[in-house]
Amino acid sequence: MKIFLLIFLACFCTGAFGIYIPKATNITNRKFPSTFIWGAATAAYQIEGAWDEDGKGESMWDRFVHSDPTHIDDRSTGDVACDSYHKWQEDIELLKQLNVKLYRFSVAWTRILPTGYLESFNQAGVDYYVNFVKALRAAEIEPMVTLYHWDLPQTLSEQGGWLNDSTADRFGDYARIVFKNLGPYVKLWATINEPKTTCTQGYASGEMAPGLKLVGDGIYQCARVQLLAHATAYHIYHDEFADQGGNVTIVIDATYNEPLTDSAADAEAAEWEFEFNLGWYANPVYLGDWPQIMIDRVGNRSKAEGLSQSRLPPWSKDELEFVKGTFDYFALNMYTAVAVNAIDEPPIGTGNYYLDKGTGTSYKPEWTPSIAGWLYSYPYGMRGLLNRVWSKYNPGSIYVTENGWATTEDLNDQGRLEYLQGYLSNMLDAILEDGVVVDGYTTWSLMDNFEWARGYTQRYGIIDVDFNSPNRTRTFKDSAKWYSQTAATYCLVDTCVD
Ligand code: PNW
């Protein structure tokens, strides 16, 4: 008898009967607006595999993982990943089962232009993605297409990549082809994913492709070129494809910055931290120019280092105009909170973005740590950050284009479920209480995938992928069962008030 009761309880709690009773107590039981769009997100290199099939060229990530296996914790690669290049029909079935109406995925630049140059045009790559977006539409799932999620053509990388101004023009060439061919089926576009992560991890810490360590100057040049590339694509869309009637923006990642103490100095430091991270990219696009605190601090420190020009490259008047206003909505990636404190002015030495910032960062003990060193759960941060973005940049509409939780948990991923429930509950508070317009949400991630330098050691999927099976079998985790219920009912708990 006892054993039956145990089995019954275990099944009941894990949602095997399709009902889930949430453990968390402070989750709202109000409904999301009926216009809210539920979705899931992925990126090409992290899921597709087929790294050299059907004419695809080599990207800087292909080179990064192949040239030195120790770049990746478990010495793995994205050569096969989730094999989504071949299993795309099955992936669309998963999206349908999840009840989501929006799928954010990225196009691999090297499938369309294998070397990054127009001469290398590859029709097979275009056909692949056209088929895919048509099939999504047939399934009544809106595609949100990211043009660039970190997989720069290796040829362009060798010519300086995001340090070379001409990469912005190459990005324009590529964007034009994608707009032209996929445009009839796509209304939501994202140009570049998380330029900050590319500059800090790819061009400064060297942890990601292309593995450069230019923490004083390259890091700022990388930001400049990516912003120019974004603006180039934005203008091409609105100048040449306006009749398609879609919306274009850049995807910016941000943390919620909470002052460590209630001192005025820590409050100011939190403000600096915000500007040196989100403002670095959002200011030029939404307001024009770099944040003033960056202009001042990097300028002053550069001068003290004896340089004749700021390491933060100043915009020309034309460039400023070109970048300013290149948004149709705000795409925000949000995972964690960071506690910020004031520090003494770091001594002058060699240029360094982290010293330019002039802040100390940590995490509060009451926040729940994930297995990823940088990711802590503090659900209120979602509400706080949304309010900040809404009032500072006045974007008209926000989509939260990534938000998720890293675990080693398998199918019983209670931790992820509670994280998502808490963050979404706070997002709903921002919508209903504060009047922030959040039109949609694509959770990271649809399925476990290649987590960059962490390989397959950190899982973000709401759907499990068996990387040991050649079939890459997909299985719903508890969080996916809960999410499919939520996407169908617009309700985070079992019953909502109307
Ligand atoms: C994102 N942070 O990166 C990327 O867009 C995804 O490709 C990646 O898989 C996912 O997050 C999980 O790592 C981020 O420090 C990296 O706040 C770092 C941060 C945020 C997002």
From TrEMBL:
Its EC number is 3.2.1.21, 3.2.1.46. It holds the Pfam family Glyco_hydro_1. GO terms for molecular function: beta-glucosidase activity; galactosylceramidase activity. GO terms for biological process: carbohydrate catabolic process. It catalyses: a beta-D-xylosyl-(1<->1')-N-acylsphing-4-enine + cholesterol = cholesteryl 3-beta-D-xyloside + an N-acylsphing-4-enine; beta-D-galactosyl-(1<->1)-sphing-4-enine + H2O = sphing-4-enine + D-galactose; a beta-D-galactosyl-(1<->1')-N-acylsphing-4-enine + H2O = an N-acylsphing-4-enine + D-galactose; beta-D-galactosyl-(1<->1')-N-octadecanoylsphing-4-enine + H2O = N-octadecanoylsphing-4-enine + D-galactose. The keyword Protease does not apply. PROSITE patterns: GLYCOSYL_HYDROL_F1_2. Residues 1-18 form the signal peptide. Keywords: Glycosidase, Hydrolase, Signal. It comes from the Eukaryota. Belongs to the glycosyl hydrolase 1 family. Klotho subfamily. This is Cytosolic beta-glucosidase.
